[in-house]
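Weekly modeling sync, notes
Attendees: S.R. (lead), two postdocs, one rotation student

Agenda item 3: backlog of single-chain predictions. S.R. asked that every request posted to the team notebook include the full sequence so nobody has to chase files. The rotation student volunteered to paste the first one in as an example of the format we agreed on. Action items at the bottom.

Example entry:
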Amino acid sequence: MTQADWPYRYDLLLRLRLIEIVALWEGRLTTKHLCDYFGIRRQQASKDIKKYLEEIAPENLMYDSSQKGYLPTTNFKPVLTQGTAEEYLHLLERNNDLNLHFERLDLGFGHCHQIPLPNRAIGAEILRPIIKACHNNLRLEVDYRSINDPKPDGRVIAPHSLVFAANRWHVRAYCEKNQAYRDFVLTRFFNTPELEESKSNFTEQQDTSWNEMITVIIVADPRLTDEQKEVIECDYGMNNGTLEITIRASLIAYLLRSLNIEIHTINADPKAQQIVIRNLDAIKAWVFD
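Predicted structure, as returned to the notebook:
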């Protein structure tokens, strides 16, 4: 069945997925999970569970009267999810984000906590024209400042994509001042960007480093002992001692920063370094100035 043929509304699909995720990872599902998370009535939650059992996966759940809930069967097989731990952890992350803004909201995941991070506020008056320019290939006159050039600097850009990397949002755009594609941090725009009437000739298709995909091969630091390497390989889910991540060439530097990999220097302590890039020659053009 293709995505276009999928018979369920988006809101219903989210509830059906929650049924599968909670049952798989917590081992017990009740209507309260759905009621608390989606703010629906118990009657609707019961209908959703019934639909899951009748139309999605009849063999996945069984009701246990002693535990007053649905338990996964020994034949449980994910249908609406991939059955990965990341799906459950992502659910907890979304729950934590909601709790940060709505303190009295009880979504049933109070046993999990997440460290609050600084809120890099982005003004709506700045983001809206950038989004419009991305959608319509419009030129945008902006005021921007950076660490290297902290004074206000006006320029015209043609944005094509928003990117979340290194714990902040960027916009990928062609910069007419530099005559090249650059990344601009959204929190460093000031004043309201002004949309130009003319479209740009520089689109996503001409952004070579954006369109080129590079595979980064990560391995445990070879200075570690075999036992220490095994720990690191398990941490990162490596296969045969390697982890391969395919990413846009223009985003490689952000990936290395997120993984705390410093390729310009080598930490004297391999336990601090932990992982290194095996195919450095393949990526150095994108991370060295």
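Discussion: group reviewed the output briefly. Confidence is low (pLDDT under 50) at residues 98-107.
Action items: rotation student to repeat for the remaining queue; S.R. to check formatting next week.
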